[in-house]
Design goal:
Length: 287
């Protein structure tokens, strides 16, 4: 199965470990990702604060390029996903706006692609049973807090593959790998990642609830599906330990990295040495 791949800016920079582990695991499961040509930054959340048209033109250009080769495009970043599924709806609902964007990107705005998050592809295209078949090193009851973040399953009028209030797809993967998904009331709460540079104190408060909440619910690690969430949780981790006088002792890792460990890959193959909060104690406990 060959799918178009939009990595977004972070997967080629601060989240290389997510890119590495996602491509490795998908390849193991028979999915070949082919990066779309000449893609550009989608603008994520920031472009909309500058110009609404800019926030539409950036992802519209990516989809228009991808449409020349693919019918489906997968994205690992939840912020990138939101930008692209939003432009699909807005341009399909407004022909005049679509023409305006077409003029800006100097080509017809073609947005009728199947745009999917990588988590969606794992659960709904590949399936839990096939994931189970690849299991080599079960997680042996590892207690995991599944953190979806606030936009991978919301707003549901743009994109819907799981319950927007109580998603279960990531929990199902963890269970299939032999882990235990802990009851986690913060699974879809915002981490404040988009505010990290403009209001660190607010982001600190929002992230604190997630990290300390996961510890209080008995998790041994948090798994994420978005590089912005990962950045917020890892970057503020030591500040939260210091400010709130808590020893978290709980790594934050991409779900594809945890899948890779259960599939029998070595930590270095999955980029785990790049994580800001060292997961090596956890890795050793699973051997």
């Amino acid at each position: 199965m060959k799918i178009g791949y939009y990595p977004g800016c972070t997967l080629h920079s601060s989240a290389k470990e997510y890119d590495l582990s996602a491509q490795l695991i998908l390849s193991n499961l028979g999915v070949e990702l082919q990066e779309i040509k000449d893609w550009n930054c989608c603008g994520a959340f920031e472009a909309a604060s500058v110009s609404h048209l800019l926030s539409l033109a950036l992802p519209a250009r990516n989809l228009s390029i991808a449409a020349k080769e693919f019918q489906k495009v997968v994205m690992p970043c939840s912020a990138c996903l939101l930008a692209h599924v939003r432009v699909k709806k807005e341009l399909n609902d407004d022909e005049k706006l679509k023409q305006e964007v077409s003029e800006i990107i100097d080509q017809p705005a073609v947005v009728d692609l199947d745009v999917r998050h990588v988590l969606d592809v794992f659960v709904n295209d590949i399936g839990i049973e096939k994931i189970k078949e690849k299991l080599k090193k079960p997680l042996n009851g590892l207690r995991v807090a599944c953190y979806y973040g606030c936009v991978v399953v919301r707003p549901s009028q743009f994109y819907h593959f799981d319950d927007p209030d109580d998603p279960q797809s990531l929990d199902e993967i963890i269970t299939a790998l032999g882990g235990q998904s802990v009851p986690f009331p913060y699974k879809t709460k915002c981490c404040g990642g988009a505010l990290l540079l403009s209001d660190e104190e607010l982001t600190l408060e929002m992230t604190k609830n997630i990290l300390i909440g996961a510890k209080e619910w008995g998790a041994q690690c948090i798994v994420t599906v978005c590089p912005m969430c990962q950045m917020s949780l890892e970057t503020l981790y030591p500040k939260i330990e210091s400010k709130y006088k808590v020893n978290l002792d709980m790594p934050v890792i991409y779900f594809t990295q945890l899948m890779g460990l259960a599939f029998g890959y070595e930590a270095k193959e999955l980029g785990l040495q790049r994580n800001l909060v060292s997961p090596m104690k956890l890795v050793d406990s699973l051997k």
